[in-house]
Design brief:
- It is a single chain.
- By secondary structure, this protein is an alpha+beta fold.
- The strands form three sheets. An eight-stranded mixed beta sheet has the order 6-7-8-3-9-10-12-11, with helices on both faces. A four-stranded antiparallel beta sheet has the order 2-1-4-5. The protein has a four-stranded antiparallel beta sheet with strand order 14-13-15-16.
Length: 445
């Protein structure tokens, strides 16, 4: 097979005032054409920094201290600004994690897709528009003709992510870097998008570097997996083999803390104790030792290298005491049943016959109103959780924003702990009783 991406001994450092921090340390990986490599780890493990190094977007404070990056046989680190511009999009398509901050709020969706096409191809404007329509249809966006004229803020989070995917695959690149591409997508669209990526890889004999924290998605989409922790790869091998029998305690922890969707077998999650060390405060030995149930004295003194074990040439692990025996991870202390003091018989939240219409300007300035939430009634008793589930665009976010009084013209009745919210507008006395965690932290902070 031909190598689409080959990274050898990559070390990336960031200059921070009077010191330098190592974000990626001696990372090597190879992705062949026709396959998907998953890069897995917690936030801050170095996954995104590794991917940004491939396309030359690390920024002025970053320094590639050592190593090499090859894309299709070309030395990426030797390319100038123009060479990198030609590489991005045409040879490497990138699906960024946050579509809200990646899409230009001043340009329509159509302008952003055709801009990518026009920068690499000399086709006519009508041909670029036709290609843009085809791409939106490929990523399952309804009414692609109308969507071309929308701005990013007029689309849901899932729709924006699909636009990002359309831009990434516009020029049929040989390598696709997908940085958490399904985070904002509902499960039905997620399945479609993962299928689309797989189909593209097969049809174009392309390769994919798939960055994720979701072990279920990794199992579904990837051929090989590399587990990263604190800037280093701690385990790698075929996905089926690594997930079936993880050798590194960190890999085992990632699998154990994945939630089970079978409610009949509900169990407490098994989180990895502690947190990842800061880049400027890494321990002298194995960086995972402070959180590891297998750690011994040698783990705290010597950092293990990534080595293959006898009889398994396709796998490697960086651990002094890999899980190749039957040692079980100790169970955490049982979680005590939660108790709640309910001071009122009224539900914590009582919503009756809520409806919400929102206005939207057409392409010629005419304002249209569309009913988004239609006659919804729900109750949330104190001490309980209510799940609101549906596809992207089904009205979930509009429902909770209407309950919070963020839209004008909300119809229906809203009560919090028995107190009625007058006209859907929250008085200051009730604001502290209810808070909201928004979907997109970047546009909310």
């Amino acid at each position: 097979m031909d190598s689409a991406l080959e990274i050898e001994g990559l070390c990336v450092r960031f200059r921070l005032y009077d010191r330098t921090l190592t974000a990626v340390d001696n990372v090597s990986l190879r992705v062949e054409r026709g396959e998907t490599m998953a890069l897995v780890g917690e936030s801050g493990s170095g996954k995104t920094v590794t991917s940004l190094a491939v396309i030359g977007l690390l920024g002025s404070k970053a320094l590639v201290a050592s190593g090499s990056i090859g894309v299709g046989g070309r030395d990426v680190l030797a390319l100038d600004a123009e060479g990198l511009r030609r590489l991005r999009g045409a040879e490497v398509g990138t699906i960024f994690q946050d579509p809200m901050s990646s899409l230009n709020p001043m340009l329509t969706i159509g302008e952003q897709i055709t801009e990518t096409l026009a920068s690499h191809r000399s086709d006519s404007a009508s041909e670029h528009r036709a290609k843009a329509l085809s791409l939106l249809a490929q990523v399952r966006i309804p009414q692609p003709e109308a969507t071309l004229n929308f701005y990013p803020h007029q689309l849901s989070g899932g729709m924006r992510q699909r636009v990002m995917i359309a831009i990434a695959i516009a020029l049929d690149p040989a390598l696709i870097i997908a940085d958490e591409p399904t985070t904002a997508l509902d499960v039905t669209v997620q399945a479609q998008v993962l299928g689309l990526i797989r189909d593209l890889i097969t049809a174009k004999n392309a390769a994919c570097l798939f960055i994720s924290h979701d072990m279920g998605v990794v199992a579904q989409v990837s051929d090989k997996v590399s587990i990263m922790y604190a800037g280093s790869i701690v385990e790698k091998g075929p996905t089926s083999s690594v997930l079936a029998q993880p050798w590194h305690p960190y890999t085992r922890g990632l699998i154990d803390c994945a939630p089970a969707h079978d409610t009949t077998a509900r169990r407490e999650l098994l989180p990895i104790p502690g947190s990842m060390p800061a880049l400027g405060d890494l321990p002298s030995g194995c960086p995972f030792a402070p959180r590891c149930f297998r750690a011994e004295a040698d783990c705290r003194e010597i950092k293990p290298g990534l080595l293959t074990l006898p009889g398994a040439s396709d796998r490697a692990v960086a651990c002094h005491h890999p899980l190749i025996d039957s040692v079980e991870r100790p169970e955490l202390a049982p979680t005590q049943a939660r108790s709640y003091s309910i001071t009122t018989a009224a539900p914590a939240l009582d919503v009756r016959h809520l409806s919400q219409a929102l206005g939207q300007r057409g392409i010629f300035g005419a304002r249209r109103t569309r009913l988004i939430v239609d006659d919804v009634t729900l109750q949330v008793p104190a001490g309980s959780t209510l799940g609101v589930v549906g596809e992207s665009g089904s009205g979930k976010s509009t429902l909770v924003r209407s309950i919070m009084g963020l839209y004008a013209g909300t119809l229906g009745e809203i009560r919090v702990a028995g107190a009625q919210v007058p006209g859907g507008t929250w008085p200051r006395s009730l604001r502290a009783r209810m808070q909201m965690v928004f979907q997109d932290s970047y546009s909310s902070l």
